[in-house]
Amino acid sequence: MNVLVTLNSNYIKHLVVMLTSLIHSNPGIRFTVYIAHTTMSEEDFTWIENHIHPDVCSVINIKIADDWLSEAPTTSRYPKEMYYRIFAAHFLPKALDRILYLDPDLVVINPIEDLYNIDFQGNLFAAASHVNEPLEKINRVRLKMPEESTYVNSGVMMLNLVLLRKQQDIHEVFDYIEDYKNRLVLPDQDVLNGVYGDRTLAVDPKIYNLNERYYILHNLHPKNWDSKIDMDWIRENTVVVHYCGRNKPWKKEYLGELDLFYHHFEKIAQHFRPLKGELPTN
User: Fold this and answer.
1) pLDDT digits (tens, 9 = 90+) for 156-202
2) What residues have CB less than 8 Å from 192, skipping those under 6 apart?
């Protein structure tokens, strides 16, 4: 399986925990992980490689050149890194037909093969929504999304690289940013939804992108009172637990129950014997 991540040096510990969870929850699968970045050092990559199992996970350094997308609109709020997920098809190897994008602030707790092999049904992306119906309507208006589209979280996405290479127009994205820059709250996620909302296949967030807020709101909604989910259900059915937003499990002030999955894989990562160095404490 091919996996894409984008990050900087501050997240390498959490990346290792995420990759540890991916490996342990998918025995028998070999992963090639492409790390797209601008500022990471060779030492960062050596450290990562020393803390994962090379027999089942290889890491590919994708350093994005400073002049790549030189005409892209960028500001302190819209850095060039925001484009890496959107335009991944343009810098990844042409031999790849699909890839799974994962944020480093998540853990994979069950096999992910079904998501990886999903039928795109002619769509460019597949991802899950975290928002309720009222906020869904607000986002459609705010971002001028098509009525039939779904606002998705961009932290877990399947990318249809074959179709993206054929259909993606870089300037369509640039024009959208220029037209709606004053409406963008979560820039890269908003842009993905605004431009590709009607070309994204929605998948179940309870399975593929469960976070603490969605977990609580799902169980509180009257229509779900006969189908509430609990920790046993999550252990059995959920594939990805995502710690998006500010509620991070490595912070003392974490609120909720789902942090136990992160700490489980954090302990496994810490017990792995690296060639040198220890997991950083920050």
Assistant:
1) 999 999 999 999 999 999 899 889 888 888 888 999 999 999 999 99
2) 85, 86, 125, 152, 154, 200
The label of the residue with tokens 């590709």 reads 196
Could you tell me the pTM of the whole model? 0.93
In this structure, what is the dihedral angle of CA atoms 278, 58, 211, 139, given to the nearest 10 degrees?
130
In tens, the pLDDT along 140-160 reads 889 989 888 899 999 999 999
